[in-house]
């Protein structure tokens, strides 16, 4: 597997305040990387730098060897990177299918026909388990449905790299589990590489391959979920509370993997 993204010395200053401070990490093709950290640690800023919503103050972001730092969001999208937003803002007067078809149309890196946009939208809706019926409106969707719609809009642009921003916010426990499984399925079925930003660590740790943990704009830990969940620096920034639930999730995952391994033998 090749390297999809290389981030080096990436820095973002707002006036005299450094929100992201010389961070660096690699992302392998097909990987799910969790970008975690407490509120205000620099996750969204990092995300916005990769997605083109903010220009870096210094450092570099390379997509398969090509510098993308400072490109516009549209240019970044056309290179195959799609993002979701923490707070979904769909066009409320349009149907679900129309919302996703618009994303497909404007996110495509070449002119596509109306029917192709609809086809891509239907595919994205199927992947996210939303109704493909062209008459269903956005109004009836709850928090979990709106998060799925966000995901469908990003997937309709046919990305190679998906940036998922706080996919769990406002969801109950069962919905969080489903959202985590959905990202895992999308990677498995479509081979899409994923960076998943979350301030809640819990359920994320069950599906990510590796984690990068931010605090005050700096990386304080990088590694496998079970490594970072037990890292004293990570436990400290999460004040032990979330870390406990993370350790439970990671323990559950290890048990599942062990059982799966045994079944495969
Ligand atoms: N446009 C801006 N101007 C000034 N400061 C900013 C700006 N955007 C973010 N910041 C500051 O940068 C720091 C990092 O913010 P960021 O939103 O990246 O954190 P986060 O880890 O995503 O937090 P959350 O989990 O709350 O979304 C915060 O102190 C924030 O107030």
Description:
The protein has ten helices and ten strands. It is of the alpha/beta class. It has a domain of 69 residues. The strands form two sheets. The chain has a six-stranded mixed β-sheet with strand order 6-7-8-3-9-10, with helices on both faces. The chain is globular, with a radius of gyration of 18 Å. The two termini are 25 Å apart. The structure holds adenosine-5'-triphosphate (ATP). Adenosine-5'-triphosphate (ATP) binds next to strand 2 and helix 1. It comes from Thalassobaculum fulvum. InterPro entries: AAA+_ATPase (IPR003593), ABC_AA/LPS_Transport (IPR051120), ABC_transporter-like_ATP-bd (IPR003439), BCA_ABC_TP_C (IPR032823), P-loop_NTPase (IPR027417).
Please outline the helices and strands.
Blueprint: E1 3-14, E2 17-28, E3 32-36, H1 43-51, E4 58-63, E5 66-67, H2 73-78, E6 81-83, H3 96-107, H4 114-127, H5 143-155, E7 161-165, H6 173-190, E8 193-198, H7 204-207, E9 210-215, E10 218-223, H8 225-229, H9 232-237, H10 241-264
Parallel strand pairs: 3-8, 3-9, 6-7, 7-8
Antiparallel strand pairs: 1-2, 1-4, 4-5, 9-10
The chain binds adenosine-5'-triphosphate.
Adenosine-5'-triphosphate binds at residues 14, 17, 19, 37, 39-45, 199.
């Amino acid at each position: 597997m090749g390297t999809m993204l290389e981030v080096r010395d990436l820095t973002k200053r707002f006036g005299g305040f450094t929100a992201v401070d010389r961070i660096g990490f690699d992302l392998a093709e097909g990987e799910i990387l969790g970008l975690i950290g407490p509120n205000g640690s620099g996750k969204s800023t990092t995300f916005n730098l990769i997605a083109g919503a903010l220009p870096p103050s210094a450092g570099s972001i390379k997509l398969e060897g090509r510098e993308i730092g400072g490109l516009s969001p549209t240019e970044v999208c056309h290179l195959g990177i799609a993002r979701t937003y923490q707070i979904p803002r769909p066009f409320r007067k349009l149907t679900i299918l129309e919302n996703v078809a618009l994303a497909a149309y404007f996110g495509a890196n070449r002119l596509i026909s109306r029917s192709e946009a609809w086809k891509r939208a239907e595919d994205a809706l199927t992947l996210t388990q939303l109704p493909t019926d062209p008459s269903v409106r956005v109004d009836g969707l709850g928090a979990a449905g709106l998060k799925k719609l966000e995901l469908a809009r990003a997937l309709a642009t046919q990305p190679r790299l998906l940036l998922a921003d706080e996919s769990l916010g406002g969801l109950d426990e069962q919905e969080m589990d489903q959202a985590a499984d959905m990202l895992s399925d999308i990677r498995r079925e479509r081979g899409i590489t994923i960076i998943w930003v979350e301030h809640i660590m819990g359920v994320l740790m069950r599906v990510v391959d590796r984690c990068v943990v931010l605090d005050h704009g700096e990386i304080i830990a990088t590694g496998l979920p079970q490594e970072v969940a037990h890292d004293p620096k990570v436990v400290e920034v999460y004040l032990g509370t979330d870390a406990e639930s993370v350790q439970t999730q990671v323990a559950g995952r290890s048990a599942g993997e062990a059982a799966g391994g045994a079944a495969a033998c």
